[in-house]
Specification:
Elements: H1 2-15, H2 18-45, H3 48-76, H4 78-101, H5 106-118, H6 123-137, H7 142-173, H8 176-196, H9 222-250, H10 256-274, H11 284-299, H12 308-336, H13 342-371, H14 373-393
């Protein structure tokens, strides 16, 4: 345990202690806005259908535009793109609050929701990209890079537990608009701090006019399998959320749904941090298969859960497999894709989770209404089985990572786990 703590201290030292604080608070609004918009629109319009349309538009905007923002940062650098996205997103969230309180018609409200999703600054995946670049620039070994990805994955998990909790607290004590107003402030202040942090220049922007830039590097075929795996992970999230909500309502304890989901997130975050203890000799592809197998084995008991106590137990144990899968796929992607497309690909993975969650939540919610909670949980089990299938069959080709320096030339060649020979 002492060695693990020392490793994470070294990870934090790569960019300084202010970087993780700014990136965490800057990505927190993303976790707040989905639930916050649903609660706000449901309260102001009195229509769950309208709330669902706005929430769906927000998720769709983030899913489609996320990779584009990543591509822009690969081309122009993180500082300018993130700064612009943070302020645009803050203004869009503020506009959504104002429009909902003014009770405007559903179509323009959904359009504002779409804009709020499309301008999400993607701080989570960009923080991963930045921290991994810092690790490579420092000549870090595979263990340190994996620890950096685990650290960022844990920050994501904590944000997606704390964000909805803050929204629920604000909605209970005051109004959902308060939570979204806080999200807008965090976007403007902490998102700007992340954009302006000195480490924002660690990755060199592509220089020169578009006509003189080299053609975009092609992605290895295995990357598409990783993206599908992340979309299926999002489907598991959405299906579990629908099943948990349906079961707690059937047990006449709907208020427990958020607590159950939060408990799963806490366990997932703890599992993510513990990945630093996994021996380096166990390669990422082996970890991917193991995580897929764990998702299948630990999700199957969901089909037989009928009490609140059993639900807590099964869901918390299932959470142990979530972060290892997410972090492993991020790690494989970091090693497989060209450095010039790293931010785009990291953002694509996050968008895949959001899109998969939104689609599965809608489908599994309908199944839960008509066939009960087990039907929604069956969607999660099916998604887990597909994840395992992809992990076993996908061919992942990796190369040697070279960091683009801020000065414009490649930094000293760093042989990372990119050329991982292990299965």
């Amino acid at each position: 345990m002492t060695a693990v703590l020392a490793t994470y201290r070294q990870v934090i030292a790569l960019g300084g202690p202010l970087l993780p604080v700014a990136s965490f608070l800057g990505r927190l609004p993303t976790a707040m806005c989905q639930l916050g918009s649903l609660l706000l629109v449901a309260r102001t319009s009195g229509s769950l259908t309208t709330a669902g349309l706005v929430g769906g538009a927000l998720a769709a905007g983030q899913t489609v535009a996320g990779p584009l923002i990543g591509r822009l940062t690969d081309r122009h650098g993180q500082r300018l793109v993130v700064l612009a996205a943070c302020w645009l997103n803050a203004l869009a969230v503020a506009a959504l609050v104002a429009a909902a309180l003014a009770r405007i018609a559903t179509p323009p409200l959904a359009l504002i929701g779409l804009l709020a999703g499309a301008t999400v600054p993607q701080i989570g995946p960009l923080a991963r990209t930045r921290l991994v670049a810092l690790a490579h620039r420092a000549g870090a070994d595979e263990r340190m890079v994996n620890a950096a990805l685990s650290f960022e994955g844990t920050l994501d998990e904590v944000s997606f537990v704390l964000g909805p909790a803050l929204v629920g607290l604000a909605a209970t004590l005051a109004h959902p608009a308060v939570a979204l107003a806080l999200a807008a402030v965090l976007l403007a202040v902490c998102g700007s701090a992340f954009a302006l942090h000195p480490t924002a220049t660690v990755l060199r922007a592509e220089a020169g006019p578009s006509a003189t830039r080299p053609a975009r590097s092609r992605l290895p075929r295995g990357v598409y399998g990783m993206r599908a795996s992340m979309a299926l992970q999002g489907a598991m999230f959405g299906a579990c959320q629908a099943g948990i909500t349906a079961l707690t309502e059937r047990l006449h304890q709907p208020a427990q749904a958020g607590l159950v989901y939060a408990a799963m997130g806490v366990m997932s975050a703890a599992a993510g941090l513990s990945l630093a203890m996994v021996p380096a000799r166990i390669g990422l592809r082996a970890r991917w298969r193991a995580a897929g197998a764990a998702l299948v084995a630990l999700s199957l008991p969901l089909l037989f859960v009928h009490t609140l106590g059993a639900l807590y137990l099964v869901v918390v144990v299932l959470g142990m497999a979530y972060a290892p899968h997410l972090i492993t796929v991020f790690g494989l992607t970091e090693r497989a894709v060209p450095a010039t497309r790293l931010a785009e690909c990291m953002a694509f993975l996050t968008s895949a989770v959001v899109g998969g969650q939104a689609l599965a939540l809608a489908a599994a919610g309908r199944l839960a209404d008509t066939h009960g909670p087990s039907a929604a949980f069956a969607v999660a089990v099916g998604a887990a089985a597909l994840i395992l299938t992809i992990a076993v069959t996908a061919r992942v080709t990796t190369g040697t990572r070279r960091v683009r320096s801020a000065a414009g030339a490649p930094a000293d060649s760093v042989r990372s786990a990119s050329a991982d020979p292990r299965p």
